[in-house]
Amino acid sequence: VETFSPTFNRITALLSRLPGIGQKTAARLAFFILKSEPKYAHMLADELKQLHQKIRYCSICGMLTEQDPCPVCTSSRRDTHTLCVVENPTDALKIEQTGEYRGLYHILMGSLSPLNRITPDKLRIKELVQRIRDNHVEEVIFATNPTVEGDTTALYITSLLEKEDIRITRLGKGLPTGGDLELADTITLLSAIKNRENLRL
Ligand SMILES: [Zn+2]
Fold first, then answer.
1. How far is the CA of 104 from the centre of ligand 1 (A)?
2. What is the pTM of this model?
3. Coil, strand or helix at 135
4. How many helices (H) and strands (E) in the chain?
5. What separation in Å is there between the alpha carbon of 29 and the centre of ligand 1?
6. Given this model, what pLDDT does residue 1 score?
7. Ligand 1 midpoint to CA 77 (Å)
8. Given this model, what pLDDT does residue 201 score?
9. 62, 54 Cβ separation under 8 angstroms
10. What is the pLDDT averaged over residues 165-182?
């Protein structure tokens, strides 16, 4: 096979490693960048270079942040007695977008999945239990994905909190079962937060 441009091929190969991007889409994206003003490619490259340099995980909640602790953890306007437990930073972003939730977050960095060897020690579970004990938390809201793994994770952590005198809730029904929290629209998510159900009385 003749190669017109090794550079173009390399970029296409890099782009095709992104989730949901196949070879064809990768080539289309590379071509789009090539057709655009050179400034666009420069901006993209510059921002990508800074991604790992500037963004890190909050040492308290695990959220993506440029300052540690993150602005949510350090805000005086948040209700520090409520913790919303999510699987990934993108889930916390999604809940934050509803503009309704005033508590803090705890990001687990995944969900329990024995098949994929994701055991409790691979997630930020120990940190969560410690946080609950140290900070007078009154309610823990599980907003893990509405999947078998998400449910299992919520129930497992609930069992660890047996001795804690706190309210434990799970986002209400209405979320697409088996799906990703990220896929839920804002209104559905909002009602799921409002109609959260007790996991334990
Ligand atoms: Zn934080």
1. 8
2. 0.81
3. coil
4. 8, 7
5. 34
6. 64
7. 14
8. 61
9. no
10. 83
